[in-house]
Input
Amino acid sequence: MTADGDDETLARPQGFDQVVLVTGHMTDSPTRPTARFPEHAVPAVARRIERSLRGWRLGAGDLLISGGARGADLIATSVARRLGATVWMLLAEQPDEFERHSVAGSTETWIDEFRASVADTPTWVLGDVHRRNESCGGKPDAVYVATNEWMLDVATRQAGGAPVRVLAVWDGLDGTGPGGAAHMVDAARRAGADVTIIDPGR
Output
C-alpha cells in the first residue's frame, strides 16, 4: 500500500515496544569506480544485520523503518519481516520513480524484492510539506536530506520517548552527496539515537 507522507498514522505513536531505523549504502553499481558495498558482500552484511536485529530481540510488537533502497534497506526489511516485526517503508519518491533511482542499477533481484515489499508492506511517500523544508536549500539531492529527516522524525515519534535504535550499513566516510548514510548517522547521533554501524567492507 502507499499513502501520503503526512498520514496521521506516522505522527501518532502506535505503542511499539521498540523502534529501529535502518539506513545505509546501496550496493555498488557496475560502473562505480571504487568498491564500497559490492554485491558479493551482501550475504555477509545480511548475516550481520540479522545478528543485530536478533540481538535486540526484534519481533512482534516492534517497528522497523526502512527507506526501501537496494542494499541495506531491503536486506533489513526482509529480515525484520521474517522476524515478525512491523515494517514501514518511507520512500523519497513515488515507487516507480524511486525504483529507477534507488533500486535499479545492479542485479535484477533487488527490483523483484522492492516490488514485493511495496505490495506487502505499509509504504508512504515523502509529502510536499517535507519537500519544502528549508533545510533542502534547492539542491538537486535535497529530497534525500528531507527523507532522512522525515524518517528520523517518524521514528522518534513512534518511540514515544524511548531511544531509537539506528542500524547503519556505512563505511564511515563522508558521503558523495547530501542525504546519504553519513548524514543520517550524524543526524541520529545529534538526536540522541543509539547508533550501530556495520561496515560493509569488513
In short: The radius of gyration is 15 Å. Residues 142-159 form the longest helix (18 residues).
